[in-house]
TrEMBL record:
UniProt keyword Nuclease present: yes
Entry similarity comment: Belongs to the CRISPR-associated endoribonuclease Cas2 protein family.
UniProt cofactor(s): Mg(2+)
Organism field: Chitinophaga caeni
Gene this chain is encoded by: cas2
Keywords: Antiviral defense, Endonuclease, Hydrolase, Magnesium, Metal-binding, Nuclease
Assembly, per entry: Homodimer, forms a heterotetramer with a Cas1 homodimer.
Record's protein name: CRISPR-associated endoribonuclease Cas2
Residues involved in Mg(2+) binding: 18
An annotated GO BP: defense response to virus
Functional summary from the UniProt entry: CRISPR (clustered regularly interspaced short palindromic repeat), is an adaptive immune system that provides protection against mobile genetic elements (viruses, transposable elements and conjugative plasmids). CRISPR clusters contain sequences complementary to antecedent mobile elements and target invading nucleic acids. CRISPR clusters are transcribed and processed into CRISPR RNA (crRNA). Functions as a ssRNA-specific endoribonuclease. Involved in the integration of spacer DNA into the CRISPR cassette.
UniProt cross-references to Pfam families, sorted A to Z: CRISPR_Cas2 (PF09827)
Catalytic activity, EC: 3.1.-.-
Enzyme class, broadest EC rank: hydrolase
Amino acid sequence: MNSRYSAYRVMWILVFFDLPTETKRDRKNYAKFRKQILSDGFAMFQFSIYIRHCNSKENADVHMKRVKGILPPKGHVGIMCVTDKQFSMLEIFRGKVGIDPPPTLQQLELF
């Protein structure tokens, strides 16, 4: 059971995006995309970087497919999947002061 939550099996999805906001339609597409990834469980890491914790690669694949299904018509979107071990090596700073990365969420699975 412990191997199911290995730091090499648990995944983080990072979605990076740079979307146009020049027209009213562009702003609407931006807001819609942002709301949809938030409703899928992503959290804002930085202004155009959102992250989501997944318990497995298979679960991460489901959420990456959802993001691909809601891509806006214009702009640049990147999706990256990293293991929990890789994500734990991330160093985050607020000014010159280091801060801890977001905690790994533990979810109970019922069969």
